[in-house]
Amino acid sequence: MAIRELTPPSRAISTTTAPTASASPTLLTACFGTFLVLVNYTVTTTTLAPTAASLHAGAAAQTWILTAASVGLTALLLIMGGVADDHGRKRVFGLGALALAVSSVLGAVAPDPAVFLIARVLQGGASAAILAPSLGLISEAFPPGPARVRALGGWGAAVGLGIAVGPVYAALLVDHGGWRTVYWVLGALSLLLLALSKRCLAESRSERPRRLDVFGALTLSVAVALLNAGLAQGRSGWGQPSVAILLGLGVVGLAGFALVEAKVAEPMLDLALFRTPGFVAAGAGALFTGLSLVGLMSCVPLILERALGLTPLAAGLVLAIWSGLSVVAALQARHLATRLAPATQLAVGLLTCAVGEAALYGLSSGDGWVRLAPGLVVAGIGSGVLNAGLARLAVSSVPAHRAAMGSGVNNTARYLGSSLGIAIVLAVINSVRSAGHPAAAVATGADRAILVAILMCLLGAAVALWARAAGTRQAGSGADAGA
After folding, report:
1. Domain harbouring 424, CATH code
2. How far, in Å, CA of 173 to CA of 165, rounded?
3. Contact assessment for residue 66 and residue 163, using Cβ atoms and an 8 Å cutoff
4. Does 68 share its domain with 189?
5. Residues 290-305, mean pLDDT to the nearest whole number
6. What is the pLDDT of residues 391-416, one digit of tens each?
7. 98 and 128, same structural domain?
8. Within 13 A of 210's CA, how many CA atoms are on the CB side?
9. Who has the most CB within 10 Å: 29, 246, 410, 433?
10. Are 389 and 436 in a shared domain?
């Protein structure tokens, strides 16, 4: 099924590998949107304390402040990808920018924890509407070839840049204008993104848009929201009955979603894609990236503050060693495209991250932050290679007219894995108790969490290598491997 451009009406679909005339503005707008989503996603890592103090949020509310955006994001990513493919990627992207502006303002004026949490959930949903179409917009502007590989590397760099900038940006604004300023500025930047989307993006969608899979959308959004809610609730105690109930209902919801997709005439997610090794590698790679890498690195600022006594701003700057190197590596990963299959690139990225995480092991409360620098450098390089490879597979492992859906699946797996990874890391860290030596207990817990993260990296790399081998066998038999 081809993709039809709706605006400008005079532009026909390119059948060559040359980028379209509006390719560069499209790439910059999509990358800016992705950057803004990641900034918004990470700001609570350095604004939690002042936000909680100002809103008089208790321990349970603080847990939800860290998690609320993830609930909205993961619940709607796949849905927004399908809607964008069928009803307009530019339209969904622009609506997401507008919704992010409105929800950011709501967060800035929130009088109590309840309103702020609602704002964060809405910010997550708006972020899904920006993030899911972004790869579809890029893949339409850059047909397959070296230019697309470079463009997807740029998208991967935007992910790393957002993670690098978010905590530092938030800490600086908290110091100079208060935590509410963080959300006022996010609102203004979202309006800028809306203006750019109107000016720089051309509309694209499937030639034969499908009907909205209402039951699939409902079951998926509810299931993912329940899983995230269960993981968030578990941070304050895994023995609570509510945790088991939420997680159990979430698993049942996922089973219900799979049943719906198997029966509906026009499913949001074609289950036959799971027979494609490249699609499996893309989803599994994203899931294990969240589990092994994002989960651990999201907790590094907390480890630095509690074990080494760093300020939130200093902790954010140290984390920027990892995320900043991932930007550079993602931009340079295009040189791997002619040497490595996408699934192999995933395996290399995950194995490199495992080496970097291993170098973090052995942290002591008496160490300085320099002790972590070599591991953060190596893990940052691996992350950049990984982000670029995931972007390649997210687009190449699905039909061209379903690129935004592929992006939605990939990012849903990444952020659901991140929520689970953060929950695991925090549970492992908090499992260590040391009377009178809390910093030493955090350092010991961090070591244990690092070992778990390394194991997750190795498992993810094994799945990617399996997919590469399976793809090679399918290619030999004439099937579409995608890996």
Report:
1. 1.20.1250.20
2. 12
3. no
4. yes
5. 88
6. 888 888 888 778 888 888 888 888 88
7. yes
8. 20
9. 410
10. yes
Task: Return d(Cα 173, Cα 61) in angstroms, integer.
Answer: 22
This prediction has a pTM of 0.81
Q: Of 3-7, 272-276, 459-463, which one has max mean pLDDT?
A: 459-463
Residue 265: Cβ within 10 Å count? 7
CA distances from 59 to 48, 49, 53, 65, 233 (A): 11, 11, 11, 10, 11
In a domain, 2, yes or no: no
For residue 301, say if its preceding peptide bond is cis, omega within 30 degrees of 0. Answer: no
In a domain, 13, yes or no: no
Residues 369, 295, single domain; the answer is yes
- Do 133 and 248 have their domain in common? no
- Cβ atoms of 155 and 138 within 8 Å: the answer is yes
Q: Which residues contact 336 (CB under 8 A, 6 or more apart)?
A: 345, 348, 385, 388, 389
Within a domain: 206: no
Instruction: Check if the beta carbon of residue 347 is closer than 8 Å to that of residue 465.
Output: yes
For residue 26, give every residue at least 6 positions away whose Cβ sits within 8 Å of its Cβ, in sequence order, or none: 20, 137, 138, 140, 141, 200, 201, 202
Contacts of 418 (CB under 8 A, 6+ apart): 70, 290, 291, 294, 295, 298
Instruction: Report whether 204 contacts 4 (CB < 8 A).
Output: yes
Domain boundaries, position 407? 21-201+268-474
Segment among 98-112, 129-143, 345-359 with least mean pLDDT: 129-143
Same-domain status, 194 and 175: yes
Asked if 440 contacts 312 with a C-beta cutoff of 8 angstroms, the reply is no
Nearest-CA neighbor of 205 among 408, 5, 405? Answer: 5
Whole-number Å distance between alpha carbons of 320 and 314: 10
Residue length of the chain: 483
Based on the fold, state whether residues 361 and 448 are members of the same structural domain. Answer: yes
Domain count, the chain: 2
* Residue 160 placed within a domain: yes
Same domain as 174, residue 53: yes
Rounded (5°) CA angle 455-461-463: 105
